[in-house]
């Protein structure tokens, strides 16, 4: 079996909105996601902070101010209620089965700025080889004490490099991801990588794959703004394909992914 990597953003790519929205609304009292991001962005601008680190700080502080124990278990409990776009929950089994008919094995990864602790408790988590997301480190009592990883739109590419070279476990070591790989058989080349995203925060990953003959797909929601953004990324040659965020069998996204797999299979046979 030849290995292929499918990599996904999470928020607005696999789900409609953000994975934290139930917490920001029901626990923190922000009626809309925009109200929450306005608050976070204002704090970050005032202190000249990285946006994702700002989010992790504000999240922890605001939850603790309301008497919530900020623990892995707390975040996990919200992962169980995450709702996905149409077809996502059956996507992995279906696309894996199709790939096997082409002698291809797909490894599925999520690369997201969202909270890993939420994503790892969702129903699709068992289908994923690895989830790379922002997260906390916890003390001996299970309390979040500090950000462990902060995933922003530019350092998403780091995880793509790690997937390509097979260095996905020890994230505290940056040396291995920059090492030259002597055994090319262990590498998943860009040509056998597919990235699914929804917009500007995914451009660095999409652009790299577009430049190096990889594959990228921008998904859009059922509104003009989302569609126009995806179309512009396509016309600007930042992404190779765009389609509605519907992962159902027989849909446009399903057809694009299968076409890419067939193209990879023919490339391998040459």
Notes on the protein architecture:
By secondary structure, this protein is an alpha/beta fold. The chain has two domains: 2-15 and 85-135 and 148-269, HAD superfamily/HAD-like (Rossmann fold), CATH 3.40.50; 21-79, no CATH class. It has ten helices and seven strands. It has helices at 21-26, 33-47, 51-65, 72-79, 88-100, 116-119, 156-165, 203-211, 224-235, 252-269, and strands at 2-8, 104-115, 130-138, 144-149, 193-197, 215-220, 241-244. It has a seven-stranded mixed beta sheet, with helices on both faces. Strand 6, helix 9 and strand 7 form a beta-alpha-beta unit. The longest helix is centred in the last third of the chain and has 18 residues, at 252-269. It is globular. 35% of the residues are buried. The model has no long low-confidence stretch (mean pLDDT 92).
Primary descriptors:
270 residues, alpha/beta, Rossmann fold, 10 helices
């Amino acid at each position: 079996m030849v290995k292929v990597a499918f990599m996904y953003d999470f928020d607005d790519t696999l789900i409609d909105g953000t994975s934290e929205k139930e917490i920001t609304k029901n626990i923190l009292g922000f009626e809309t996601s925009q109200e929450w991001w306005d608050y976070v962005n204002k704090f970050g601008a005032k202190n000249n902070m990285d946006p994702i680190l700002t989010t992790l700080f504000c999240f922890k502080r605001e939850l603790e101010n309301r008497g919530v124990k900020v623990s892995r278990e707390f975040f996990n409990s919200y992962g169980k209620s995450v709702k996905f776009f149409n077809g996502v929950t059956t996507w992995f089994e279906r696309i894996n089965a199709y790939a096997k008919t082409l002698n291809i094995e797909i490894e599925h990864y999520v690369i997201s700025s969202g909270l890993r602790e939420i994503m790892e408790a969702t129903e699709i988590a068992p289908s994923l080889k690895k989830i790379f997301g922002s997260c906390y480190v916890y003390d001996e009592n299970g309390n979040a004490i500090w950000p462990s990883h902060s995933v922003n739109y530019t350092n998403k590419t780091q995880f793509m490099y790690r997937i390509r070279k097979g260095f996905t476990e020890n994230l505290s070591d940056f040396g291995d991801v920059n090492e030259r790989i002597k055994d090319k058989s262990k590498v998943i080349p860009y040509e056998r990588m597919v990235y699914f995203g929804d917009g500007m925060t995914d451009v660095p990953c999409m652009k790299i794959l577009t430049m190096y003959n990889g594959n990228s797909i921008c998904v859009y929601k059922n509104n003009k703004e989302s569609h126009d953004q995806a179309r512009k990324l396509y016309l600007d040659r930042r992404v190779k394909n765009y389609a509605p965020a519907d992962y159902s069998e027989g849909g446009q996204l399903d057809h694009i992914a299968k076409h890419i797999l067939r193209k990879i299979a023919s490339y391998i046979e040459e």
